[in-house]
Amino acid sequence: MCAARQTRETRRDMGHIRRAVFPAAGWGTRFLPATKAQPKEMLPLVDKPIIQYAVEEAVDSGIENLVIVTGRGKSSIEDHFDIAFELEAALEARGKPHLRDLVRSVAEAASISYVRQKEALGLGHAVLTARGPVGNEPFAVLLSDDVLVARPPCIRQMMDIFDAYQSSVVAIMEVPMRETDRYGIIRGTPLPGSDRLYEVRGMVEKPAAGDAPSNLAIIGRYILTPSIFEALEATGEGSGGEIQLTDALRRLTATERVLAYKFDGRRYDAGEKLGFLKATVEFALRDQELGPAFRSYLKSLDIDGC
Length: 306
Ligand code: G1P
Hints:
Structural class: alpha/beta
Bound molecules: 1-O-phosphono-alpha-D-glucopyranose
Number of strands: 13
Order of helices and strands: HEEEHEHHHEHHEEHEEEEHHEEHH
Shape: globular
Strand order of the largest sheet: 5-4-1-6-11-8-12-10-9
Distance between the termini: 72 Å
């Protein structure tokens, strides 16, 4: 068989990315007490819960089947993406068809299934929980804490890399050296001919600044080949006593190529208060309806007097 044909057939074997997993079973401790009785994924950024931004990113990227990994106290996520007949009828009766259409569009945007992570044993364990619905296919993982603004969407950029290289891809960005203990950090070598791609040689979860192999931090977007599931099964507790996706990916690099992609766009860490506030302010400023009034309000503020 000629090499070109072999490549084509390998490519067909791997297939395209059709499924995306959204881990959403964590405690959200950084936002307590706001997250005592509601999931952090449902905290609103202007007028949409943060998980909806990640869902829209996947849908806009052409992914059809979404799997949300939930846990105790997360049922409002399922309600949010479900049809709300009573609400729709009330909006209709009150002459607000545009709002009825808006709430219906959230339910119709994607086909979503749910799996339950019964114990919060870490991100790696959450991804392993989605093994059944994902099956033996490459898939995407989106962490909704990371709200990304990019055109095309970050996960679409990564799907294009997967199509070209047929290997797992993690999104990365440069962070200050003092912040490496908040991220998975990669050790990589630049891929010849590309200024954004690295071949991953190693990675470590939340290393102290002095121990970090670089300042290239993993952000919450991944394209994974199904071999990650065996790697996860073989991975024990890591940083924070949890099963870490970073550790399983490092294991995967022994048998498969893993690429890191410095994505083109802007990232907000909506998983912590300051990042959440920055995202709120910037999204509100960019909002068509709200933006002008919000901008003049901010300008009128005596910030030092507040
Ligand atoms: C997770 C990952 C970490 C990654 C980060 C990006 O950590 O484990 O490797 O850098 O997301 O947001 P978490 O923020 O859930 O502790």
